[in-house]
């Protein structure tokens, strides 16, 4: 798990690239476009497959995999964009990989029912 969640994709991208010694703003900008599923929304924490591969193989960031009870719906995707402050990766519509241990534990407590978890998080916001 990484320390102290940066606010957005830019902060996470900077953290990712600093592990391999890249500091050039142009390369950081390019990597952000490649590594994030929705680079037009800097607050979206969903990684692309390239971003997930880089984070887990090049810099070995620990992640937690959850096979979900039900498939991810469009509503769930929107709620994820609004509610999750750490990077996550959707492997398929029945599996999510999160980089935050607290989120992982909470999902386990919700029996991997992602929609129920997000509904409750949304009520708290």
Q: What distance lies between the first and last C-alpha atoms, to the nearest angstrom?
A: 24 Å
Number of helices: 6
The helix-strand sequence is HHHEHEEHH
Mean pLDDT: 91
Helix content: 40-55%
Instruction: Tally the structural domains.
Output: 1
Describe the structure.
- The chain is mostly helical and 125 residues long.
- It has one domain (9-124).
- It is 49% helix and 10% strand.
- It has helices spanning 9-18, 25-35, 49-58, 74-83, 101-109, 114-124, and strands spanning 64-67, 88-92, 95-98.
- It has a three-stranded antiparallel beta sheet with strand order 1-3-2, covered by helices on one side.
- A hairpin with a 2-residue loop joins strand 2 and strand 3.
- Helix 1 crosses helix 2 (25-35) and helix 4 packs across helix 6 (114-124).
- It starts with 8 loop residues before the first helix and ends with a helix.
- The mean pLDDT is 91.
What's the helix and strand layout?
Blueprint: H1 9-18, H2 25-35, H3 49-58, E1 64-67, H4 74-83, E2 88-92, E3 95-98, H5 101-109, H6 114-124
Antiparallel strand pairs: 1-3, 2-3
